[in-house]
Amino acid sequence: MKLEGYAEQFNQEVLAAAEVDAISRLDAFTQLVIERLTSAGEFDDGQISYYRKTGLEVSGWSAAGEEDVLHVFITDWRDEIPPPSLTRTQVITLLKRLTTFISRSTSGLAAQLEESSPVWELADLIERQAKALSEFRVYVFSDASARAIDLPELDPIAGVPVTAHLWDIDRLYRLDTSGLEREVITADITELHGGPLPCLAGPKGADHTVYLAVFPGDLVAKLYGQYGSRLLERNVRSFLQARGAVNRGIRETLLKAPERFLAYNNGMSATAADVTLVKTADGGKAIAAIRDLQIVNGGQTTASISHVATKDKADLSKVAVQVKLTVVNPESLDEIVPSISRYANTQNKVTGADFSANHQFHVRVEELSRTVWAPAPDGGQKQTHWFYERARGQYADELTRARTPAKQKQFKTMNPASQKLSKTDLAKFVNSWEQLPHIVSLGAEKNFREFMLRLADRNINPDVEWFHRMIGMAILFRSAEKIVQKQQFGGYRAQIVTYSIAKLAHETQSRIDLDGIWRSQKLSSAASDAIAEISYPVHEIIINPSGSVRHVGEWAKKLDCWKKVEEFNWAPGASLKKELRTRPDPKTSQPESNEGLAGATAEESELINWATDVPAEHWFGIAAWAKDTNNLQGWQRSIAVSIGRLIAQNRKPSLKQATQGKKLYEEAQRLGFNSP
User: Fold this and answer.
1) What are the start-end ranges of the E strands in 354-466?
2) Beta strands in 256-311, from DSSP E residues, in sequence order
3) Cβ distance 467 to 365 under 8 Å?
């Protein structure tokens, strides 16, 4: 595909996103670029916060806490095909408007803004934390073509260095068509270190070679300072960013016993596509450059070294880190690197969940999305697919394969752009329904990581029924977006939507008829009215942070915020109650055998007695509710029925049944189940 065709395709994606999300085209373009750069590891998620006044402008931002870096964006949206030219003078003007916004924010701009607006959160963050930052990274996003221009060096703001970055349509084109989800890192070790780095080479494998080296601490700090979290972007980066922070133990060693760091620390495992080797004076080997460098184990070590260098101004001259560098053939990267991530990582345990698009869960959802036809709405004849993008760009690739205009029109008719959904969309829909709005509010990528971590524990195998209900969640979510948009709250629509859906699911015990939504391909009037009604108190809670939390965006990420939303009084009206799913009779299920109390400890006996004290009809109710709402797993529903039947027969459940019963009971309560 040539640049002009790509630009037209991107333009259509913007139009579809603007329509689906009910936002401006400029904001849609900003959001799509944020999504691409988040996937590429440039930064970790981002927020839209468009603001423009005379002499200053901003379109969005991302705060990467582990890096002490603030990324701030300005968007240049032309909406022209073929893409017009973007001159250096125009880029400088855009950067000037953006840096003026940052500069004004350091000196009190927030006081002039409405506190409930997303841009206030950014301005206030800059004012309060500028001194703690190591860098402002300012970005120009543009659908115009800059070709090859030199970006200017920018003056520090409030003593904080500022670096400029440009993502024009040409660079986005290279990112999307390179076959990679990121730009390859090529680290010039000779330049960064002042010379090549001696190494030992292990035996050459069929598809990989291993090199052992000792990296000086200042080289590690320079690498992380230059490339940031892009160094950690494969599977293990996903885990570390979901769970990790600067490790206190590592930091203490770096500050108090740097000469012992090599002895104390486990070191790092890294991968590369290629290395440039040179001979040393004594005939040995040394690494001069590394292409496609990725750290798959030792992310906290890397981030901690950078942290003490930039924030503590620590002397790293005595710090050394052992590194195992595995050079992998490109065709084997996706197979070998996840295994290295799992097996090499010992300091931070990595689960068996594969975060890549090749995970069997995503493969199965893709299969279902290509074969399951959605009912035609309003009794029509035209059936369509809900197109699941297991990997970014699949929709566009399929459209490109339909070479004639007639076939492309046919593809769009069967696969409407408004019915395209991504992995992060799916995670957002499901986690909102499962009453985890504080997790959804972490951002698309972090929410997806948490979704995958939960998925690893639940062993879900999607079938047609599951797919129907998932699309029901998608329709519910996207309808809620439009409903909330109409309320004109002025900001934080994403947080209001996920919290409103979670509240609706909680108060109806997850008994909204998702199958009914699938069949009609739209939300009922009663459910729409409920979302609109709930959104007002949700909005009030979200824009009024409590405790020590100051910013709305951060407040929405807290469990305490969800607890407040859970607590406000709301009940479904009569019309919605009529639509809620009924509970089937669970009595046909077969009970498990009772293992008895023999040999049970006092704690175990207490657990068994607890399960026995829960009324039988309560256990039956949980099983029926879980089956009706597609919550819990089939074996958990069976356990609930088994316990209920045993209690009805004046018998006690086994320790195993009581243990699992306690877990499923608490999960059911969390999801809003109330006893009959």
Assistant:
1) 387-389, 420-422
2) 268-272, 274-279, 285-291, 294-297
3) yes
pLDDT top residue among 630 and 519 = 519
Euclidean distance between CA atoms 106 and 125, whole angstroms: 9
Q: What is the pLDDT of residue 120?
A: 93
- Count of other CB atoms within 10 angstroms of residue 604: 14
Measured distance between the N- and C-terminal CA atoms of the chain, rounded to whole angstroms: 60
Residue with tokens 């009805």: 648
**How long, in residues, is the chain?**
676
**In a 3-state reduction of DSSP, which class is residue 525?**
helix
CA distance 302 to 162: 22
Nearest to 523 by CA among 570, 577, 576, 466: 576
pLDDT given at position 469 = 94
- Taking phi over 0 as left and psi of -120 to 50 as alpha, with beta for the rest, 490 belongs to left
Nearest Cα to 506, choosing from 435, 582, 581?
Answer: 435
**What is the overall mean pLDDT for the chain?**
85
At residue 197, what are phi and psi to the nearest 5 degrees? -110, 120
CB-CB neighbours of 404 under 10 Å: 8
Place 337 in a pLDDT band, splitting at 50, 70 and 90: low
Residues 222/238, Cβ–Cβ less than 8 Å = no
Round to whole Å and give the CA distance between 628 and 395. Answer: 33
What DSSP assignment string belongs to 83-110? PPB--HHHHHHHHHHHHHHHHHHHTTGG
Task: Label residue 343 by pLDDT band (50, 70, 90).
Answer: low
5 pLDDT higher than 80: yes
Burial class (CB in 10 A: 0-12, 13-18, 19+), 1: middle
- What's the 3-state SS for 305-372? HHHHHHCCCCCCCCCEEEEEEEEECHHHHHHHHHHHHHHHCCCCCCCCCCCCCCCHHHHHHHHHHHHC
What is the pLDDT at residue 91? Answer: 96
Q: What is the Cα–Cα distance from 669 to 671, expressed in whole angstroms?
A: 5
Rounded-to-integer distance, Cα 565 and Cα 551, Å? 17
Contact 13, 32 (CB under 8 A): yes
pLDDT band at residue 585, thresholds of 50, 70 and 90? very low
pLDDT of residue 341: 61
Residue 131: predicted pLDDT: 86
pLDDT of 600: 52
| Whole-angstrom distance, CA of residue 423 vs CA of residue 470 | 12
Contact 527, 101 (CB under 8 A): no
Cα–Cα distance, 605 to 264 (Å, whole number): 45
CA angle 123, 128, 131 (to 5 degrees): 115
Pick from 649, 621, 646, 626: nearest CA to 637: 626
Q: Each residue of 268-318: pLDDT tens digit?
A: 889 898 999 999 989 999 999 999 898 888 877 887 888 788 777 889 999
What count of other Cβ atoms lies within 10 Å of the Cβ of residue 585?
8
